[in-house]
Amino acid sequence: MPAESLFSPVSLGAIECPNRIVMAPLTRARATEQHVPTEMMADYYAMRADCGLIVSEATAVDPLGMGWYRAPGIWTQEMVDAWRRVTDAVHEAGGRMVCQLWHMGRLVLPDYLGGELPIAPSAIAGEGETFAPRPAGDDSHFLPMKPYVVPREMDAADIARALESYAIGAANARRAGFDGVEIHAANGYLIDQFLQSKTNHRTDGYGGDVNGRTRFLAEVIGAVCSEIAPDRVGMRVSPTSERKGMGDENPDALTGAIGSIAQKAGMAYVHLIEPIASGFMEKPDRPVMDKLRAAYSGAVIQNGSFDAQTADEFIAAGQADAVSFGRPYIANPDLVTRFRQSLPLAEADFDYAYVGDEKGYIDYPDYAGS
C-alpha cells in the first residue's frame, strides 16, 4: 500500500483538496456536435469526485480555437448552463472541479472553421494529423483523419480577440460553478505555440527571446485573473514536449520564465507534464522540475506515467505537491479506492476513448462491480 502522503490533504491555492490525487484533463468527445456538455458528462465526472481535484477536459474558449469533434466549449450561455449541471453533480458528490481553458491554435482543421485557416503565432503547420468532423451520412465507428495545415499568422486583432476569449471563458467558468480554472498552455496548443522557439518565429513583441515568447502567456493569465482570483487559477505546461512538431531551444530557460510568471501572478498551481517513463509522451532527457521549483514557490502537480507508488515517492521527496492521472481514470472511476487498497486496475477499451456515447464512458464499474 502506498504511504499516506498521497492521501493527505493539500491546498492548491484557495482550493482545499482532501487528497493529492488529481484527475487529469481527458478529452473524451461526449459533448454534442455543437460542443454543449451533456448529462452523461455529469455522471462521468461525479463518479470520480472523490479525488483531490478534477481538471475538466480541455474546454474551448472560442470557436476559432475548437478543432475536436464533440469536445465541449464555454463561450455561450447554453454551454454555461450545461456545465453548471456538471459542476452541481460533482459538488453534490463531494468533489472539486476546475475548468481547463483551451484554444487549439494551429491544430484546428479548416473543416471546423467553414474552410478558413486556423490561427497561430507563426505560419508553421503542426506535424501529423488529427480527427476531422464526421461527414453527413457517415455512421462508421471511427472518425476520419486529416493532416494539419499551415495556419494564418496572428495579427494584433487576433491576439486581442484571443485574450478577450480567455477572459470571457474564465467569467463563464465562474458562472458555471467551477471552483477555479486551469489555463491550458501545454501539448502544442495555442499558448504553447507562442512559448516554444520552434513554433514561434515572430519578430514583434510576442516573439524572439524567452521574454517575448512568454508575453502572450502572461497576458492570458492577466485576462483570466481579471475574472477569477489568481489563487483559483492554475496552468498546465509541457516545456520539454516535442509532440506535434513542438520544440524549444532552451527548455530550462523557458521553464524558469514560466515559473517566474506564475510566481508574480500568485497562481494556485502549475501542472507540469514531465513523464517519468516514455508512453503517451516521451520522458525528457533533461527534466526541468528543479527549474520550476527555483522560480515558483506555489503548488506543483506532476503528470506523466505515474502509478500510486511513484506518485507517493515524488510527493514524499518534495518533487510534487500532487500528481495527476489521466488514462487510469478512463476505466477506473474508483481510482482513489483502488490506489488506497492496492487493488488491480481495469484496462480501458481505447476503441471507445474518443468516440461513442455511454459505452466506454460511464459503463466502467467500480471494483465491487456496483
UniProtKB/TrEMBL annotation:
Coiled coil: none annotated. SUPFAM superfamilies: FMN-linked oxidoreductases. Its cofactor is FMN. Keywords: Oxidoreductase. GO terms for cellular component: cytosol. The keyword Protease does not apply. One of its GO terms (molecular function) is FMN binding. Transmembrane segments: none annotated. Residues 5-345 form the NADH:flavin oxidoreductase/NADH oxidase N-terminal domain. It comes from the Bacteria. Gene3D superfamilies: Aldolase class I. The keyword Oxidoreductase applies. Belongs to the NADH:flavin oxidoreductase/NADH oxidase family. This is 2,4-dienoyl-CoA reductase-like NADH-dependent reductase (Old Yellow Enzyme family). The lineage of its organism: Bacteria, Pseudomonadati, Pseudomonadota, Alphaproteobacteria, Sphingomonadales.
